[in-house]
Design brief:
- Belongs to the glycosyl hydrolase 20 family.
- Helices cover 44% and strands 11% of the residues.
- It is built from 24 helices and 14 strands.
- The chain has an eight-stranded parallel beta sheet with strand order 9-8-7-14-13-12-11-10. It has a six-stranded mixed beta sheet with strand order 2-1-3-5-4-6, covered by helices on one side.
- α3 (104-117) links the parallel β7 and β8 (121-125).
- α11 crosses α12 (348-365) and α18 runs antiparallel to α19.
- The chain is globular and about 85 Å long.
Length: 636
């Protein structure tokens, strides 16, 4: 398609040129004339009598409009689209701290997709993955961004009218920095800062300065979530008991003073205040929680509160929780999620339903700022690119008063990403398996624990006993393969899910078969498993690792891949040991296999037998073994 732009394009041309290749269009004197002009706020795109127009209120809207023009104008038929943006600010939060740090190229590709969607902000979650002068252990060997890299991301985002800004931690969630012995003077507990001291105050000041300096935006997210351990380590030894609320509010005021002095507009996660107000002191979603007047009075009002909610699927639940935030007296921001947490896939069943309801309620409640978080808990085997269908839902909600139709969402995501919506949806079946609740509402993650669990120990075998996991993964493998389009730029994203299904159709139930054969002394079956089946599984794991490595290095910095490499190595090595142990038993060199003598127990009480799904495990090291991976004499 050829276009010829008319109008004041000086501020738009850098972004237009960045998207030319993405859209496969060229500027040409003989191209379709496109008249570009600013409007009062609504986005208008159309084609009539051989001429096109884009009228936009804000710069980011132009790039959505450009995408809509190319999407609908290729046929040459007349059309008119008029949209009104429903949120002032909407975009993703990319987790850049849980093992996987996007390369500049990977980040820019995501920004291209965001520009076509019409999103206007991106939050960079940076625990310790940014450099701080004078703090060499901060982000050491973690792929931290330099100041120049963050500035390049900001510059690239700005050409589309996308506001980039940092989300850091100024209180807890700093385990990866505080683990280093040379910085122990900053540590209260394993992950929380020792607040109240001059050294920590100086560190926080350096954090805020380093994180905010590369960005045009004056926004900064200061974190402060999930700080349950606050004041219970060295702080307690030095100061005696002080309530967590007292410690938090005192520290918060210091952090805000630093932010105010730099002209920054801070926001923070709201959970600790609701937890501290709850009956048990640790429940974020407690329906009985009421913010006490004294608490509300002491909380500064010039910090935005970010209400995060990733799980609810009923309007009333969001309405009630929003109402519980109102007494805080702060501007309220909402953060939903596209569930790439702790899985190889995307929990689209939960993500799409929860986000759809949440965004409808946010419109009704007048919440003007919304984010889609994509956490990378426990190593980030997944990635934000396979979450683009979920992000597209946020974008379509942003430009529609009503709930966007599935057809509209599907058409838009195909245009913006080159991938069919139904292909994205196949990824939910990595975890939405037999035994899962409808739409995987209980966040089962068998794609991860069935890969990493040991075949001799079978920690999850009782959990999945009687479920046809092997047949399920064979079906999903075929479902993914049949929907792939080899010439699509992002088709490679399906290499890992397809190969993973190839592993799990073989491995998911092998431990059950192995234990069954051992219990009845079926030596022929045990030999076959040892010599035929386990080596085939090992080769499938190696193939999975190879495509995963290629994918990782195409979008992430190399730091962090060693963790996934080690995990794959553990799977392969344990399969080898299992083969050895089985043959030793079958051939009479040992009298028993102690691991298989053990009774199989349920991994947890959260399982399909009480309608809690097929199972969930948050940590690799608990999936791989019940034994000690590490021992911490002093966790604080």
């Amino acid at each position: 398609m050829k276009l010829r732009f008319h109008g004041n394009l000086n501020v738009l041309m850098p972004g237009i040129r960045a998207l030319l290749q993405e859209l496969q269009i060229t500027e040409d004197e003989d191209g379709l004339p496109v008249f570009v002009e600013e409007s009062t706020g609504e986005l208008e795109v159309g084609l009539e009598q051989g001429k096109a127009y884009i009228r936009y209120g804000q710069r980011h809207q132009f790039f959505r409009g450009l995408g809509l023009l190319v999407q609908h104008g290729c046929s040459g038929e007349a059309f008119q689209i008029r949209e009104k943006q429903q949120f002032d600010t909407i975009g993703p939060m990319f987790d850049l701290s849980r093992n996987a740090v996007l390369t500049l190229g990977g980040f820019k590709l995501l920004l291209n997709k965001m520009a076509l969607m019409g999103l206007n902000t991106v939050m960079l979650y940076l625990e310790d993955t940014y450099e701080i002068s004078g703090e060499p252990y901060f982000g050491y060997m973690r792929g931290r961004y330099s100041q120049a890299e963050l500035k390049e991301i900001d510059d690239y985002a700005d050409q589309f009218g996308i506001e980039a800004f940092p989300s850091i931690q100024t209180l807890a969630h700093l385990e990866e920095f505080l683990k280093w012995e040379p910085v122990k003077h900053y540590k209260d507990t394993k992950g929380a800062l020792l607040v109240g001291g001059e050294k920590t105050d100086q560190l926080v000041e350096k954090m805020i300065e380093a994180a905010s300096a590369p960005f045009r935006s004056r926004k900064i997210h200061i974190g402060m979530d999930e700080a349950e351990e606050l004041g219970r380590g060295k702080y307690l030894d030095q100061n005696g008991y002080v309530s967590r609320f007292e410690i938090m509010t005192t520290h918060l005021e210091k952090v805000l003073d630093i932010a105010r002095g730099r002209g920054l507009k801070p926001m923070m996660w709201s959970d600790m205040f609701l937890k501290l107000a709850s009956t048990g002191g640790d429940e974020y979603y407690d329906e009985h929680t009421q913010i006490p007047e004294e608490m509300a009075r002491r909380i500064p009002k010039d910090v935005d509160m970010v209400y995060w909610d990733y799980v609810h699927t009923e309007r009333e639940e969001y309405e009630n929780l929003i109402a519980k935030h109102r007494p805080l007296g702060c501007n309220l921001v909402f953060a939903g999620a596209v569930w790439v947490f702790n899985t190889f896939g995307v929990n689209y069943g939960l993500s799409l339903n929860a986000s759809d309801i949440a965004l409808q309620v946010c419109k009704k409640e007048g919440i003007r700022e919304v984010y889609a978080t994509m956490w990378g808990d426990d190593g980030m085997e997944s990635n934000p690119f396979i979450a683009l269908l979920g992000l597209q839902l946020y974008a379509e909600h942003a430009y529609s008063e009503e709930k966007p139709t599935w057809d509209r969402l599907a058409e838009r995501v195909k245009f913006c990403t080159g991938i069919e919506a139904d292909a994205f949806l196949q990824l939910k079946y990595l975890d939405e398996t037999p035994g899962a609740e409808p739409d995987n509402r209980k966040q089962s993650n068998p794609s991860k624990f069935l890969l990493y669990q040991d075949v001799l120990l079978g920690l999850f075998d009782k959990q999945i006993e009687g479920l046809e996991m092997s047949a399920h993964y064979a079906q999903v493998e075929q479902g993914i393969r049949s929907r792939r389009v080899k010439d699509a730029k992002l088709d490679y994203l399906f290499d890992v899910p397809e190969k993973l299904c190839g592993v799990l159709k073989l491995k998911s139930e092998i431990g059950i078969a192995l234990k069954r054969a051992y219990d009845v002394k079926d030596l022929a079956t045990l030999r076959r498993i040892a010599t035929d089946e386990l080596p085939v599984i090992a080769e499938a794991v190696k193939e999975l690792r190879a495509v995963h490595r290629t994918q990782w290095l195409s979008m992430y910095k190399p730091f962090g891949w060693e963790v996934i490499d080690i995990r794959y190595g553990g799977v392969v090595n344990r399969l080898d040991t299992a083969s050895l142990r089985l043959l030793d038993y079958v051939e009479g060199r040992i009298d028993q296999i102690e691991e298989l003598e053990q009774e199989r127990l349920l991994y947890s009480t959260v399982n399909r037998f009480n309608n809690k799904g097929a199972g969930w495990c948050s940590y690799y090291y608990r999936m791989a073994s019940p034994n000690v991976f590490f021992h911490v004499l002093n966790p604080f």
